[in-house]
Design a protein that fits this description.
Length: 410
């Protein structure tokens, strides 16, 4: 028996309905917020992620599915979508359209992680991106979108944490301070963090090891090293969130695991500590990938982690057939097949028997699939152009003209 690869899962049945519900809500919200959908390839040149995500990140250092294609090029399954969407923004000249460009995506990502609750090797992300907007109103807008989505889905126990890690200039003085702090503790850090101290010490704040977390408890915070402009940016964002009525916690431990962030970083965190949405501003990403300097912001949301929060009450009658059309004989079968197709074309969920079952077995099946109405066609009914329709909820039946069927079940 061949099994699904470790860390992957099949989405089906009841759970798929929850996914549909979430995706419908996302698309409806994206429409009114003005975000157009984008689909990018599942794999890209490895270089895109080295440059776009950063070669000191967990994703690139430990988690990427990288392979050589038959032409000898290094390719990687996408570990996240922002880099690919940014590439498309530049490559497709979207900067020539009125700015900002606002996009959203829903699709799978691949990370070679240790599988555990809420952590898969293939997971799905919903995300939004704004390119060509420097004002903190951009972050406020995407945060509002995320917040509205969680509210509409009735999700509780998720809180918004925000922080600012400043621009490249603030980073120089901050990194200096942080290295000073870490230097006396290098021995106690994990090997990876010790090696990050020179090139990207900020990353250490994001390490999952409890030992490293304990070491950095008293580390200097980024918000105290902000330049005037970054400080104003952060204050303006907080004012906007307050005006929108979105509660938020300032959390100096949020730095995000990817190199491309500048200034704002935020996470929506569940009360069990897992992050559902992570995002922020990334003003240097587009230029890092060869485009002109472009203000940008976005977030990524883990679909599995979100769906696990609403594993309840989707009414299954919403997905049950309206009518089961069985047959008692050959002519009945031909008629049932034809009427089923006609009803479907008119938008009704109609079902007929595909398994050559007895009338009794057909009725049993109709009951099991929760068909709202049932009818059985045969030579007698067809000769009189009638059918007897049973209302499975009320338990009553009625004989009506065949051409009145559609109206009857409406
Ligand atoms: P974490 O700190 O949990 O590893 P991350 O910083 O790697 O998260 P991002 O790269 O920001 O996560 O991805 C955005 C969102 O995608 C996360 O907040 C999370 O909800 C979800 N996510 C990330 N990795 C996985 C995974 N392996 N399985 C399921 N969901 C994931
Ligand atoms: Mg991760």
């Amino acid at each position: 028996m061949i099994q699904a690869p470790k860390g992957t899962h099949d989405i089906h049945g009841e759970e798929m309905r929850l996914w549909r519900r979430v995706e419908d809500e996302i698309r409806a919200l994206a429409d009114v917020y003005g975000y157009g959908e984008i689909r990018t390839p599942l794999f890209e040149s490895t270089d895109l992620y080295l440059r776009g995500v950063g070669d000191t990140t967990d994703i690139v250092q430990k988690e990427m599915y990288t392979f050589e294609d038959k032409g000898g090029r290094s390719m990687s399954l996408r570990p996240e979508l922002t880099a690919g969407v940014a590439r498309a923004y530049i490559e497709r000249g979207m900067f020539n359209q009125p700015q900002p460009t606002k996009l959203f995506y829903i699709g799978p990502c691949f990370r070679y992680e240790k599988p555990q609750a809420g952590r898969y090797r293939q997971h799905y992300q919903f995300g939004v991106e704004i390119f060509g907007a420097n004002h903190p109103a951009a972050e406020a807008e995407i945060i509002s979108l995320g917040h509205t989505l969680l509210t509409r889905l009735g999700i509780e126990g998720v809180r918004l944490h925000i922080n600012s890690i400043g621009c490249a200039d603030c980073r120089v003085s901050y990194n200096e301070k942080l290295r000073g702090f870490l230097n006396t503790r290098l021995e106690s850090l994990c090997g990876l963090c010790a090696s990050r101290c020179e090139k990207n010490p900020l990353r250490i704040l994001d390490c999952k090891s409890p030992n490293c977390q304990a070491q950095i408890k008293e580390a200097p915070v980024t918000t105290e090293a902000l330049c005037g402009e970054c400080d104003t940016h952060f204050t303006t964002l907080r004012d906007l969130l307050t005006r929108f009525g979105i509660p938020h916690i300032i959390d100096s431990k949020i730095v995000r695991g990817l190199d491309y962030y500048t200034r704002t970083v935020f996470e929506f965190i569940k009360d069990d500590g897992q992050t559902v949405i992570g995002g922020g501003r990334y003003d240097s990403l587009i230029s890092q990938l060869g485009g002109a300097p472009t203000g940008a912001a976005g977030f990524g949301m883990g679909m599995e982690r979100l769906v696990s929060l609403l594993r309840q009450n989707i009414s299954s009658s919403q997905f049950a057939p309206k009518l089961f059309i069985g047959h008692a004989d050959e002519v009945g079968f031909a008629a049932a097949s034809g009427i089923t197709i006609d009803l479907r074309q008119a938008g009704f969920y109609a079902v007929n028997d595909l398994a050559d079952r007895s009338v009794k077995a057909q009725m049993k099946y109709a009951d099991k699939i929760n068909a709202r109405y049932t009818t059985i066609l045969g030579a007698n009914e067809l000769a009189q152009n009638t059918c007897t329709v049973k209302d499975m909820e009320a338990g009553q039946q009625e004989t009506i003209p065949l051409d009145g069927l559609r109206n009857f079940i409406k």
